């Protein structure tokens, strides 16, 4: 399977020019660093492998490359680096002149595609917090067009790039990472289906299945996602984890989030935020109207069914993975 490394974990590569914001993204999304602290990060000058798998459901590595990677250097093992990679995230600093970055993007994509045509290419047009709305749209249009034109000219018509406007100063970076990660989860349609069933039978307006540590949502029901609801749910996770850290009784492994985690927040606009833990890494966060919560018994019952179904989905995945890790030579 070209999309996974030997341990069967999908791998995401994070690449881009020096100072484009790679280390900041990694620290903010996966290590809870506050955006202001990234001002003092030292620039990356080596490949950083970040194993997030111990604390997060999303099992992947981020390889932070220094901007000046030379693909023609014999020490640079393209086969090894791109071969086992599920998605390549290329970060472009939108506040800077991006001509160099586009050249680098082209070089990277064409090189990686030759080794592994299954890689998903995700371009983060980053640091857009400093840009006006018009400027953002213009930057995205321009980068999209130039990047695609160049690939077409070189005959890479079938390469598909996805573009995202991102900043570490708001939730856009989490939203973008959510989309990137979702593409690497083979069970996504099943998860969405289960969420749809749960939501429609429980009178819930919106439900997100979150990876608690990174606040990436790995699935949601099929009603449209509005940024405000997502932000509200992210904030709820922060509140719950912070309160549990301060006042909660600690599990043996010190985790603030455990199998009994449950929280209910009533907002002053007759809306309720409802969080339930699904497993060690995942939480379900729902938004619903207060009057629908009168039937909490029904919601709780549906939730238990939902949680059981999720467990089954991932048990099947583990069995499949184990089977592929121990192939029987006689079969
Ligand atoms: P790297 O060399 O690609 O790892 O880049 P760094 O992560 O070291 O970031 C370079 C600089 O960009 C740092 O001073 C960050 O604070 C800043 N930066 C990163 N992301 C953003 C962003 O979304 N908006 C703004 N305004 N600055 C950012």
TrEMBL record:
Belongs to the GTR/RAG GTP-binding protein family. GO terms for cellular component: cytosol; Gtr1-Gtr2 GTPase complex; lysosomal membrane; nucleoplasm. It is found in: Cytoplasm; Lysosome membrane; Nucleus. The keyword Membrane applies. GO terms for molecular function: enzyme binding; GDP binding; GTP binding; GTPase activity; molecular adaptor activity; protein dimerization activity. GO terms for biological process: cellular response to amino acid starvation; negative regulation of autophagy; positive regulation of TORC1 signaling; response to amino acid. Keywords: Cytoplasm, GTP-binding, Hydrolase, Lysosome, Membrane, Nucleotide-binding, Nucleus. This is EOG090X08AZ. The keyword Disulfide bond does not apply. It catalyses: GTP + H2O = GDP + phosphate + H(+). The chain holds residues 56 to 386 of 400 of the full protein.
């Amino acid at each position: 399977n070209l999309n996974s490394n030997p341990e069967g974990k999908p791998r995401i590569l994070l690449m881009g020019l020096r100072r484009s914001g790679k280390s900041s993204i990694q620290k903010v999304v996966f290590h809870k660093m506050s955006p202001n602290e990234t001002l003092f990060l030292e620039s990356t000058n080596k490949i950083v492998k970040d194993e997030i798998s111990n604390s997060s459901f999303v099992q992947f590595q981020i390889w932070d490359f220094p901007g000046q990677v030379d693909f023609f250097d014999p020490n640079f093992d393209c086969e090894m680096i791109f071969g086992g990679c599920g998605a390549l995230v290329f970060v472009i600093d939108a506040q800077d002149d991006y001509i160099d970055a586009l050249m680098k993007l082209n070089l990277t994509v064409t090189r990686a595609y030759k080794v592994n045509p299954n890689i998903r290419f995700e371009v983060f047009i980053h640091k857009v917090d400093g840009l006006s709305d018009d400027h953002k749209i213009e930057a995205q249009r321009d980068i999209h067009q130039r990047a695609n034109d160049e690939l077409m000219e070189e005959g890479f018509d079938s390469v598909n790039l996805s573009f995202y406007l991102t900043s570490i100063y708001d939730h856009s970076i989490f939203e973008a990472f959510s989309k990137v990660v979702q593409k690497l989860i083979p069970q996504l349609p099943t998860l969405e289906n289960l969420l749809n069933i749960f939501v429609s039978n429980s009178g819930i307006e919106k439900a997100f299945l979150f990876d608690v540590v990174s606040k990436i949502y790995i699935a949601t029901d099929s009603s449209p996602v509005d940024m405000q609801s997502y932000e509200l749910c992210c904030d709820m996770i922060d509140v719950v984890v912070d309160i549990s850290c301060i006042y909660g009784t600690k599990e043996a492994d010190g985790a603030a989030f455990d199998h009994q985690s449950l929280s209910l927040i009533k907002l002053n606009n007759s809306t309720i935020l409802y969080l339930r833990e699904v497993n060690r890494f995942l939480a379900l966060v729902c938004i619903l109207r207060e009057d629908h919560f009168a039937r909490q018994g029904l919601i709780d019952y549906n939730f238990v069914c939902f949680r059981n179904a999720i467990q089954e989905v991932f048990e099947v995945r583990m069995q499949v993975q184990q089977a592929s890790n121990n192939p029987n030579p006689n079969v």
